[in-house]
Amino acid sequence: MAPPSQILSTLLLLTTCSLLSPANSATCSSQTFTGNNLYRFCTDLPTLNSYLHWSYNPSQSSLSIAFIAPPVTPSGWISWAINPTATGMVGSQALIAFRDSKGGMTVKTYNVSSYGPLKESKVWYDVKESSAEFSGGVMRLFATVVLQEKGETAVNHVWQVGGSVTGGVPDKHDFGAGNLGAKGRLDLLRGQSNGDTGGDSGIRKRNIHGVLNVVSWGIMFPVGIIIARYMRTFPSADPAWFYLHVFCQVAAYAIGVSGWATGLKLGGESKGVTYPIHRNIGITLFSLATIQVFALFLRPKKDHKYRTYWNIYHYSFGYSIIVLGIINIFKGFDILNPEPKWKNAYIAVIVVLGGIAVLLEVITWTVVLRRKKLGKLHDGF
Ligand SMILES: *[C@@H]1O[C@H](CO)[C@@H](O)[C@H](O)[C@H]1NC(C)=O
């Protein structure tokens, strides 16, 4: 069997490699959004340097999109539309983003019934919310719309960019090949139909990933640390606390690694959307925990002169794991977006664990201070 340090460096190397290798070559998957805007799918549209990100909830026919494109000029416009009756521009139900007269970005809806001048109007879908941004030469149009027909899973869509707006009305666009080819069919549940990122099996995999990681990083690691910190104060608990601590952390590590592996798999399968922060925290956690487990074998004896340094390292890694683990679990909740009761249940678990830790901290200090008074300070604390 290879020595632990060799296994460790191999694991670190593998970790680094998986961090560097791009999940896929699509451009839209590297686009990120401010705030909590997360979209399940994205596509690099074939013309006009434009991108579409979207999430679709079929039971409510609710579609959230972010359409990204460079307008022809800064005073131009960008548009994304659904055409419920045909495949081209005529009949399309358009969202158009442009700068309004006050200089802010606005989004308006148009029923494009002919090639004539546009007139703002109601459209075939309900617009729940819409907004737009303009920066770096690129406009971003955000909208959440509710489609009319329940259960619809694919739509004809059309996108477009223009160079000017006159009196609050977007002017005609160019008629180049890119403009004329800016249309297609959009499968709103792309992931579900090919078992990719969505669908029942995708959701089940995500739930397994969530449960494994919450149990490991979110509950067992903190419990193991509580055992180590508070049981050792009592000489009668020595060396039981140590074996309990090691057992708890090694079990947590085993579950955590499987949770981590499911996460890597989900990340590799997710063609549309990546969650770089969640992924990087996950990789950091795995690395820290791996070092912790192997450090068990490299631990200097209690009275060795380096033991203090080992302790400092071991404690700081341990507390970092608790903090990062909890942060990443909440990041995961935001991504998976399960029913609120799950997040609330986990918050309750943390509050209880935190309460226990505070209580034990008080008890420990009372005991330690009393011992100090009696001149019998237990040197392990
Ligand atoms: C859009 O305009 C066409 C032609 O005027 C009309 O037939 C259609 O009902 C309109 N659609 C909506 C959603 O208002």
From TrEMBL:
Name the needed cofactors: heme b
Q: Which GO terms describe its cellular component?
A: membrane
Q: Pfam families from the entry?
A: Cytochrom_B561, DUF568
In the record's cofactor note, how is the cofactor described as bound? Binds 2 heme b groups non-covalently.
Gene Ontology terms for molecular function: metal ion binding
The main place the protein resides is membrane
Q: Which part of the chain is the DOMON domain?
A: 48-162
Gene3D superfamilies (alphabetical): 1.20.120.1770
PROSITE patterns xref list: CYTOCHROME_B561, DOMON
Q: Does the keyword Signal apply?
A: yes
Q: Which UniProt keywords apply?
A: Electron transport, Iron, Membrane, Metal-binding, Signal, Transmembrane, Transmembrane helix, Transport
Instruction: Identify the residues that the record assigns to the Cytochrome b561 domain, covering every copy.
Output: 169-369
- Which residues are involved in binding heme b? 209, 245, 278, 314
Locate the transmembrane regions by residue number: 210-228, 240-261, 281-300, 312-333, 345-368
- Compartment(s) of residence: Membrane
Q: According to its record, how does it sit in the membrane?
A: Multi-pass membrane protein
Signal peptide feature range:
1-25
Listed InterPro entries: AIR12_DOMON, Cyt_b561/ferric_Rdtase_TM, DOMON_domain, UCP037471
Q: Which domain of life is it from?
A: Eukaryota
Q: Known CDD domains for this protein?
A: Cyt_b561_FRRS1_like, DOMON_CIL1_like
Provide the function of this protein: May act as a catecholamine-responsive trans-membrane electron transporter.
Protein name per UniProt: Cytochrome b561 and DOMON domain-containing protein
- Write down the species: Handroanthus impetiginosus
Q: What is the lineage of its organism?
A: Eukaryota, Viridiplantae, Streptophyta, Embryophyta, Tracheophyta
